[in-house]
Design a protein that fits this description.
This protein has about 260 residues and is of the alpha/beta class. It is about 20% helix and about 25% strand. It contains eight helices and 14 strands. The structure holds zinc ion (3 copies).
Amino acid sequence: MNVRILGSGTSTGVPVIGCGCEVCSSTQSKNKRTRASILIEAPGGNILIDTSPDLRTQALAGSINRIDAVLYTHLHADHLHGIDDLRSFNRFKDGPIPCYGSKESVDAIARNFGYIFGDGGSIDSGGWKPDLTLNTIDTTTEICALEVTPVELTHGRSVVLGYRLNNFAYLTDCNAIGEASLELLRGQASIDTLVIGALRQRPHPSHFSIGEAIEASKAIGAKRVILTHMGHGIDYDKETKLLPTGVELAYDGMSFEVL
Ligand SMILES: [Zn+2]
Ligand SMILES: [Zn+2]
Ligand SMILES: [Zn+2]
């Protein structure tokens, strides 16, 4: 299957509005980061992880016309608020698009987007709203003919989900991984390619730093490590020179095959 990095940026995106720092004003296209999301293209269908506020831009940039399922990592706005753009994909699929997340996420999404899932709520949808179903995922589940395993991660005071699909794993917002989750990631076969969040060089209360993400990747035993969810403290070219062998920075539009 193929994985595409649709967005590699933190919650503000890079450039940050109003910031004139070296990275925000850089002309290097790999320093331009939309909000974090990936697309998994598998024989059984296209799985989107998170609906970033930049979903429309990402879909147009990548000529993505089909989404068969959505996996949510958590309910923060930078991972969720592009949900309305899913309606465009309903035109290319019979029936609703199934969306999966933790019980907490699913409950919050239903509550916060009542105009999609409830009786209309306070927002007038203008008559065209996404056709979606919400499903709790708490154990390995077959989605688009793939075994998808949710992996609990610590993200500040929240518990969020990462996902393992075969020998690929996507662990975006997190600052710690418990022993039970490490076991799921080590599993019977080790992870070949790991995409893991790394916000900046310095520690942060709810995100791994670059150094911490690399340490976590070693504990998982991943062969190829790709850092994502990066802020404007990370310059693509400068940082790439400092990374150990086997570790790379993600960039918007990056695409690679996984087993
Ligand atoms: Zn985030
Ligand atoms: Zn900046
Ligand atoms: Zn978050």
